[in-house]
Amino acid sequence: MNFGSLFKNLANFQFPYTIESEPYHSTPLWDLYRGQRKKDSHDVTVFKAKCDGAAGSNCDELIMHAMHMIKVIRVPGICPLLDVFDSNGPDALFIVTEAVTPLSTALGEAGIGEAGLLLGLHDLFRLFQVLEPLFYIGNLSLENLFVDKQGNWVLFGLECCYEKAPEKFDRFKFKDYIKMWRGLHGFPPVADGAKSLDPSLIDAIALGELIEALFEAAKVRIPSDWGKYVQGLAQGRMTLTGFIQRVEQTATWRGNPLLPIYDELKLFHIKDAHSKLQIMQKFEQYYFRGGTRSLASQFTPGFIGQLIVPELVECLSWILNQENGLIVFNRTLVKLLTVVLSLVVEAREISELSEGMKDMLYLCSKLTDRQIRFVMLIFLPRLLEKFPKQLDFSGRIFPFYLQGMLDTDATLRLQTLKTIPYIIGELTERQLNNEILRSIAKTQVDANEEIRMWTVLTIVEISDRLSGVSNRDGVLATIYTKSLRDPSISTRLAALYGLKMSIGIFQVEVIANKVLTVIAPSLLDKDRVVRVRAKELFGLYLAKLEEEASLQFEKGEGEGESENESSDDHTAFLQRFEQGGYFARDLADIVDKFMTGLSVSPEDNLDSFGSTAAYGGFSTMSGDPTETLLGSGRWATPPASSAEPAEVVPEDDDAGWDAEDSSWDSTTTTPQETKPVRSSILSRPRQPQSTTRTAATPAAKRKPSILAGARRTPPAAAAPARGEKSILSRRPAGTLTATTPAEPEEDDWDSAW
């Protein structure tokens, strides 16, 4: 059809509707267009009459008859009529109704189940009970049935409908209309004497065939207690009224929990607030007790999203706006909130949240009632999953949501914690990296064991999204370290699981410096399962570290010659160390070099002992670790000569070590210089002792030294020749004073390692 000609026909008047250019459904007599009313954007369906000449000029008669009957019959169950435009005859006939969808389309796309079929047949039964005493429908079929926005089944297309009044009924024209209609829709022709043309049986037979077609299209078996009635109806052995009465007494019909209140739900829009609340309370009872919850996905599209949910939201809003409504209707409010949230997340037809639904959710999130907050937490993940970015969660819900992490009730804290992974996508970077992490830090030390375990599992879920944290590796390592020390086995296992799932996050430097040291204590855990898991995890991280080390080694093979020479020196050093006794041989080398430096030839100028040049051989030990140890002067000025040798007083073996340790000055190194090796007692002249003895330091208070095993006094040197002064005789009589005050030594093993 040329849609341009449609508007040419409308040129004589202002058409108050906007219409799409292409029809969304077509029948042999009608094209269906989606449209909107211009003044309020109300959705409508426009039926445009058409006739392709298949049945001659008589199809115009069918269309005009249908237009006449839809004006006459204005009862519930007939497609709601809004406007009719017929000024230009059948070629430009427009019938405007409420927005509808063909039932055949709904059956194929929505997957209506048995519960939805029963509610739809309930609509048809009520319509037939009204029409049967007054009219013959004549052309009842699946092609004539539609579904409105609220899921109600409605009838359109009364091309064969006739009043039963004798003065208005024309039997011959009625049969002609039926034959013509069946021919247009592809039904097989019928003989004049067939039951399907008998006015008293035609609607009953058509209903039997319709029920069989409905269950077949929905791919649902006809209920077993309906079988004989449907078969008798299709064969013309039962009247329409008798069939409805028998079916409504079957267990299938009476077992549907919504049918008893279905009529009240259809009149919900004309009830006052208290009556609506009473109806919703009945619906809530059937929803929880009658099995409706499992049937929610089987209803006709529109029944849940456009009829039940909006009315439930209206009831909840009315309760919340009442003074003391939360106290008076507390139990009702909690139950109705549970029903509406359950329906919203389960109904496939609801694809977006209405403004009324959003306002109700924002209002409920502010309430302090624990039951309401718990219900909100239960359905919050599914709401955010189904309706992403539709709620202003970060601005209007999150400030109140975070209070659940501090609630005194452990159940509420736990449920709040479990929902954190689902709200990450709705939060800002500041909320995620600051407020959420601070709250999790508190729950990690919660008194409840289950909360501590779920804290670790929550961190595992959101760890890959903490990209805004500057020190993410360190934060995660700290969290897992703390959890591995938890007394609860489940928390420790959760920490090991977290480390396993985070293996791709940690850098190799963090693995070497932190992660392996975190896992290592778990290898000695009291619980066998923890030990086994820790061993497996340790192997995974060690393998990753070895893989990175092999890559670094391969990269180092291509370096320059200086790197190779350095590697050769280090290799020789390691080979020397692996031969065993390294510490003893190194100490012996130091002693030899020291003794060599003390040997003085007769030609040496003994008066220049205080200068560095007097040490002779000390300056030739470049490149040796002991160069700094032996070649650096220990006094600021050379000691003065003594007129007579100092009196030799016996002393305790460890007195010199104690004095040495107390006068040692620690040297602070920088990354560019090597920390000086701490000198031993053998590298400096022995300091003279005072003739007045002090009490020896108790052994328990003496500081241990790394060279404790070598605290032996060197053997006495040979007596000097006549006229030759001994090197020991040049010691001053007085006590030497260091140029800087001695500072106590600290065992800073962390900086050393």
Structural account:
The chain has 30 helices and 11 strands. By secondary structure, the chain is mainly alpha-helical. Among the domains are: 3-254, Transferase(Phosphotransferase) domain 1 (Transferase(Phosphotransferase), domain 1, Orthogonal Bundle), CATH 1.10.510.10; 332-553, Leucine-rich Repeat Variant (Alpha Horseshoe). The longest helix has 29 residues, at 528-556. The radius of gyration is 49 Å and the shape is elongated. The model is unreliable at 558-566 and 600-753 (pLDDT under 50).
Outline:
The protein is mostly helical and 753 residues long. Among the domains are: 3-254, Transferase(Phosphotransferase) domain 1 (Transferase(Phosphotransferase), domain 1), CATH 1.10.510; 332-553, Alpha Horseshoe (Leucine-rich Repeat Variant).
Percent in strands: 5-15%
Radius of gyration: 49 Å
CATH arch. level architecture of the domain at 3-254: Orthogonal Bundle
Summed over residues and divided by their number, the pLDDT gives a mean of 76
Report the biggest beta sheet as strand number plus sense, adding barrel if it closes: 6 strands, antiparallel
Per the principal axes of the C-alpha atoms, what is the gross shape? elongated
CATH superfamily of the domain at 3-254: Transferase(Phosphotransferase) domain 1
Assigned CATH class of the domain at 3-254 = Mainly Alpha
The number of helical elements comes to 30
Number of beta-strand segments:
11
**Class by helix and strand content?**
mainly alpha
Low-confidence stretches: 558-566, 600-753
CATH topology of the domain at 3-254: Transferase(Phosphotransferase), domain 1
Distance between the termini: 87 Å
Helix content: 40-55%
